[in-house]
Amino acid sequence: MANSNSSGGEGDRYRSHIHGDQERNTEWRFGSPPNYDLVNKLFEEGRTKVWEAGSLEERVQHMVKTWEMEMFNKRRFQDYKTVNPDNYTFSLNGRRPIRLEQKRELGGGYNSLLQTSLPQGLRGYDPSRETMESSHAAFTTAFPRGFALEVLHVYSGPPAIVYKFRHWGFMEGPFQGHAPTGEMVELYGMAIFQVDADMKEIEKVEFFYDRGELLGGLLKGATMEGAGLPASSCPFLRNV
Asked: What is the pLDDT of residues 110-122, one digit of tens each?
């Protein structure tokens, strides 16, 4: 869920498959390759772990950041390099695994990551009423410097990678009619990535976390006068 700016930058030390000949014909959702300079700075200033280059932890972190980049920024499934669109599945908190087409039907991006069974009046953020564009705009506005990601611990290596992660950012913009607090918002969770032996292709992704830890920090700000709280019209982030 990291944020990114929409242009600039010739490379990224934490992600692959953004630039180069292989991406010459890639269709980017926002018109150009993402730029992660702001969120990379946030990551470097706020991370709690610095993994040795080439270590399993560093490789897993690079893989996850690259996967997030593709899921949020590449328009066509055929342009994905981290997954095989024909057999890849995603699930959240034990829900039934879904394929890329079904994920897109849910609104993709943040909407698929914030699925909930709560009654509509208690959701705080309702992914069923958002599009990929509106959800992206809501979170990039709330986190103008991005929502950084670090891998805290890797419990097992390929083919079933189990890891603990931390996301964080500063709410410096409004969210769903709530004023910015300027405070850090953090989200901790676990994930299982089923991969091939070389960690070049992700076959299955499972995430486990409490979305309330994210939304709680975003909804605590004062209600802004005249702001409507249903589906967001406010301008998990191109800077993920």
From this structure: 999 999 999 988 9
